[in-house]
Write a structure and sequence with these properties.
Elements (H helix, E strand, L loop, with lengths): L5 E5 L5 E9 L13 H21 L5 E6 L11 E8 L15 E3 H8 L5 H6 L22
Antiparallel strand pairs: 1-2, 2-4, 3-4, 3-5
């Protein structure tokens, strides 16, 4: 599937029943290149909404998980979000996608960090956890990125 700004494709090493990636057509290296701005927040929100639509059509009623690998733990040098319809596949490296790891960020954490200051509507869009509701913030103070 493609839109004017996004491309969706299957993950080369699927970990779940459906495991897709979504990338912006415009090159962005990784999460660290995103900033707290209406534009970057809108891009990630569009990625999430496109994901939900695609995965719900493919697997109605499945539990969905959305998120990013945080640099330096990303292996692809282009911003991409993973979308998975569970259950995970037998033998899949599910540890790569858990909120208790330092390398995985659920999309709601990223959206909350990118929401322009004082934008309650933008923050509300990230209120429904897709991956267990991690309370971590991103990025930590002083590390650059969205804050």
């Amino acid at each position: 599937m493609q839109t004017e700004r996004l491309v969706v494709f299957r993950d080369r090493s699927p970990a779940a029943t459906a495991h897709l990636q979504i990338v912006p057509r415009k090159h962005i290296d990784n999460l660290n290149d995103l900033r707290r701005s209406p534009e970057d927040h809108a891009l990630v929100l569009e990625m999430l909404e496109t994901w939900r639509e695609v995965l719900q059509r493919m697997h109605p009623g499945a539990k969905l998980r959305f998120g990013f690998h945080r640099p330096p733990f990303n292996s692809v040098l282009h911003l991409h979000m993973h979308g998975k319809a569970l259950p995970y596949l037998d033998g899949a490296p599910t540890w790569k996608y858990h909120t208790w790891t330092p390398w995985w960020l659920p999309v709601e954490v990223v959206l909350k960090s990118l929401a322009p200051a004082g934008d309650a509507e933008a923050s509300a869009a990230a209120a429904v956890p897709s991956d267990g509701g991690s309370q971590r913030s991103w990025p930590p103070d002083g590390e650059g990125g969205a804050v």
